[in-house]
Queue: 2 jobs
Job 1
Amino acid sequence: MNELIDNTFKILAKVTNSKTGLLLRINNFESYVMSLVDVNPATFEEFIQSLAHLHRSTGIDYDSVENLPVYKSIVNELDVQSCFIQNVYSINEQNDSVYLFLFSDENNKLFYSENDVCMSILNILSSQVKEIFYETLNKKSLLPFADTKVDADTIVKNWEENFKNLLQISNDLIFMLDKEGCLLKVNESGALLLDYSERELLGKHFLELVPADKNIEVSEAISKMLQSDKVINFTTNLKTKLDRLRSFEITGRTIMRDGKVIGMLGIGNDISKMKKYEDELIKLKPKLTEAKRLISLERARLWQQSSLIEELDRLKSEFVSNISHELRTPLASIIGFSETIVSDPDLPEEMKSEFNKVILNEGKRLAKLINDVLDISKIEGGKIILNKISFDVVEILKEVVDRNNESALRKKITLKFEHPNNPILIEADKEKIAQSFEALINNAIKFTNGDGRVKVIVNNQFKEVEIIISDTGIGIPEKDLPYIFQKFYRVSRPGTEIPGTGIGLVFVKQMIDLHKGMISVQSEIGNGTTFIVKFLKSFKAKN
Ligand code: ADP
């Protein structure tokens, strides 16, 4: 019995690959209460009693174990440094309990898979102990604990057979090689893992099971084991009879007699599933990277959005100050000129009518500004109603150009209008389209210096009409071009600031979009700007 337990411990120690200290308690087998470390039996018993109590009341958890007063005194006597309870296993069937404590130093923690292995070996041990014990009892018709020595002897006698059983039950590949590396023994379940029967494998050289790409690596591991007489570990794939590959983590050691190697022992832990998960994990990695990339893109987008909102806020407050200025200037003229007329009854009629003209123009400018703002908010609110009719776009453009002749003349700008002689019809809101051309031509004159030239060209194309409004003015910097149709956006020209509100082009673009037309812009700083507008022609009769 002692030998059975002792050997099981050795297997466990090998499997867990640790300098593990072990204490074992098997209830109802008081005489076999034992400690592999040299602990005072009385202290150990006290410890066990407390544990049994804990187990009955709460189930074992090692926090409570470590709080037991006797725990420290036990641990102090153990032959491991900085040891702590690594794990407590218990198998409890009615009155029979087996407790196994694995003590190890902190750096040598067990893996979960090793815990499972310990647990299954412990299960085997527990049933073996019970089997041997009751067998002995039946044979000798003795009461339990009647003759401890006889029980122990029986167990020792049956040890080989029981250990064989243990190997067969094990889920691992357990094998023995001769000194040449040929298989002498292999457990049945291990052989099955490789799709062979036990007999088929006997006599095969171990390297025959190793795939070609791993051959050198495994040969090197085995020669290292032969030279050092130490436990070695290596991971390899093994070929099954059906040509499948299974991954094993192999722990091996030489068998020595009289200082000579006579064979080798090994346990192979089937890690194929783990490997599969690892491979899947590797496959998932690019997806994770992709997900991370998308998250960072999304983050950047959000950041951009928030800075866009900040920019919009800035533009809005700039707009408020600009629009107040735009409102104040015409209002000041209106009030100024009307006051002069009212306060001076002797003002010559000629001057009066001149002043009235100024008042009227400034009033119109004010009304236009207010209408533009109202129109934009109406478009944005989806409330604008288009009054579409079929009309001649050339005729409308002619009217707009005529209206702007005077301001062009004032700045000594040549305003030219080139157009086909026949009418070109479009179906649109005549007033809004006229307003849009007005804004474009106005801008062309506003941003062109004296002696410059503004040209309005109408091209009659197959299904479309193209209107080009180009100037030889100051131009728009390339970096500002993408933003000029944005609300409140104004090109900043320090030192030569030209008044404006940044809504004219917004209105133009929104109107053209509403009519399913197109607008584009080309510009070169210092050389002028060209706006190109396109509308689908109407083939309906003019309204
Ligand atoms: P604003 O009331 O400031 O003129 P707009 O929406 O009409 O607002 O124009 C936006 C910006 O586009 C203006 O600040 C101006 O700098 C630029 N811009 C528009 N048309 C021209 C042009 N023909 N030449 C140069 N710059 C122009």
Job 2
Amino acid sequence: MASESELLQSVPTSLWIGGPVEATGGGTFPVHNPATGEVLTRVADATPEDAVRALDAAAAVQADWAATPSRERGEILRTVFDRITARAEEFALLMTLEMGKALPESRNEVRYGAEFFRWFAEEAVRVHGRYLHAPSGTGRIVVHKQPVGPCLAITPWNFPLAMGTRKIGPALAAGCTMIVKPASETPLTMLLLAQLCSEAGLPDGVLSVITTSRSGAVTGPLLTDPRLRKLTFTGSTEVGKKLIEASAHGLLRTSMELGGNAPFVVFDDADVDAAVQGAMLAKLRNGGEACTAANRFHVQNGVLEEFTTKFAEAMASSVSIGPGAEAGTTLGPLINEDQLNTVAELVDDAVAAGAQVRLGGKAPGGPGWFYPATILTDVPPHARILTEEVFGPVAPIVGFDTEEQGLAAANDTEYGLVSYVYTRDLDRALRIAEGLESGMVGVNRGVISDPAAPFGGVKASGFGREGGIEGIEEYLSTKYIALS
Ligand code: NAP
């Protein structure tokens, strides 16, 4: 296993357009280590012209890639899965360095992220159409699925590998080419992945990576270029809305995986110990910087104190905060100073409104952007932390009396990505799961992500699904051929 400095020296830092290429004008921007604030390295800073070069490359090979037998496409994807898995430690350390998360979290992400290549390697050969006789007897109907065409993927920093592979896997499996614009905070993982895809036999131009510090200016020309056919975005609701507007010009197909504000609902009849275990995962996975992170805990008053006490004990005894690459760390730093300030502000606002701090609640100070695991109780309904995405290791807990009140509180949000519910009553579990306004529900589970399941939201959490058999549909268009 390479040392940190050897690893950083081996990772590509140029753009990836049919191989490594410098940005026009030779500009670069820094990538920071959130555990220290220091510059890890610099990467190429793409210009709008570079983005168009990537689209030129994608458009040039689109027809050949679409015509490549699906078995062959699938086998390349499977080779990528094998190679990521073989180099899992490199990917994990790289993500920890640029994003901050603890190494065990990065290892989990490598397993999860790689799995999208294996899953879609298997789905590539299962794109089916239909053949039927028109009920009117007037002819035959053939339904044929074709790749949408060149796609642009814009991804966030919180899962530098998996947020890309969830898009690249199905796009390539469907026969689409793709340009990825990773978050400027975490460009290195995606550049390493592009190099590895090339080594695995992916033809030049099928996958390009453009890194930039000027996202809007660089991706803008692509969204209005008639050769681009799809935009797939994961990130904040605010940016997602802007991109939908920009995509209207070319009537692009769009998939939007946006922000979340997940409720975690615990009923009196729940197994409280299991709920605490689930809460630890739902809150602290990825240091709370996950769109699926439980943002607010609604606990029925009969078990409110027991749940709160056990949750605080579990956090106090098992969370070890520190640089993500250090042995024993379970909670790394937040991504940057802005994020640290946002989390601190939301906690301070809740406390000023009357919330009690049961655990944590104060940033330890630099270097690095650390915030401790925190539990707030007696959080008043108007506290911002109940309505805004906290994206940090902070758990606000509020009580409720009746099932109706619990469900209403859970649904009282503009978002609708995921919800969690803990109860031993199967009827209640199904009733609540059906009543929750979210694209996904975890019943007696604190982690729900699975490459074989359709991931996605409703309301302000967006539309489109990633993973499952639905994931590849996002990259296919349907053609109807009428026969006599
Ligand atoms: P963000 O600020 O929306 O950025 C996401 C991506 O969009 C980054 O690559 C960013 O580039 C780019 N971007 C920003 N402004 C742009 C513009 N005007 N035009 C084109 N691209 C632009 O979100 P984030 O802070 O990175 O990520 C956190 C958010 O992602 C949270 O809200 C979280 O819930 C959401 N998320 C959702 C899911 C899901 O599946 N639903 C999964 C993970 C995260 P720069 O880095 O250069 O700004």
